[in-house]
From TrEMBL:
CDD domains: biotinyl_domain
Record's protein name: Biotin/lipoyl-binding protein
Pfam families per UniProt: Biotin_lipoyl
InterPro entries recorded: Biotin_BS, Biotin_Carboxyl_Carrier/Decarb, Biotin_lipoyl, Single_hybrid_motif
PANTHER family membership: OXALOACETATE DECARBOXYLASE ALPHA CHAIN
Keyword Hydrolase on entry: no
Keywords: Biotin
Top-rank taxon: Bacteria
Lipoyl-binding domain boundaries: 102-162
Residue ranges the record marks as coiled coil: none
Length: 162
């Protein structure tokens, strides 16, 4: 009844099935009434989006000049010789570059107990450092997920390894 009264006061013509218009105004009082006022005025609404004309594809990049390049794939360096046509004419494995930092031995698979988090998130703060001895229940790091901080604790006593 209130919507019908408002419609009469503002000169709004309700739809044949007025329940739809009443429901629109009940759910969205201000925009619903404004919609009913302008229902038959397309200029009151945003224009219908138009499909943009297809842009021409960018010109393909020029191929690199012929020469000898060192390419690294999965940590292994390869020396490749490329001709003008882009064909690889020679491929040899390069000697690994000497590293200034000492190489640490990788722990064998299965050594130690991996620490898993109960949920996905971002590491907010690392508490335990590599080589540190921890007891069962010690906080190793703080994980942030959904604006909440979660402490990740050691499941057993041991030494932290990277």
């Amino acid at each position: 009844a209130d919507v019908r009264r408002q419609a009469q006061e503002k000169g709004i013509q309700l739809a044949g099935n007025a329940i739809d218009d009443v429901l629109t105004v009940a759910l969205f009082p201000q925009p619903g009434l404004k919609f009913l006022e302008n229902r038959h005025n397309p200029a009151a609404f945003e224009p219908v989006p138009q499909a943009e004309a297809a842009q021409p594809a960018a010109a393909p990049a020029k191929a690199a000049a012929s020469g000898i390049y060192t390419v690294e794939v999965e940590g292994k360096a390869f020396v490749v010789k490329v001709s003008d046509g882009g064909d690889i004419s020679q491929l040899t494995a390069a000697e690994p570059a000497a590293s200034s930092a000492p190489v640490q031995a990788v722990a064998p698979a299965g050594a130690g107990t991996p620490v898993t988090a109960p949920l996905a998130g971002n590491i907010w703060k690392v508490i335990a450092t590599e080589g540190q001895t921890v007891a069962e229940g010690d906080v190793l790091l703080i994980l942030e997920a959904m604006k909440m901080e979660t402490e990740i604790r050691a499941a057993q006593a041991g030494t932290v390894r990277g």
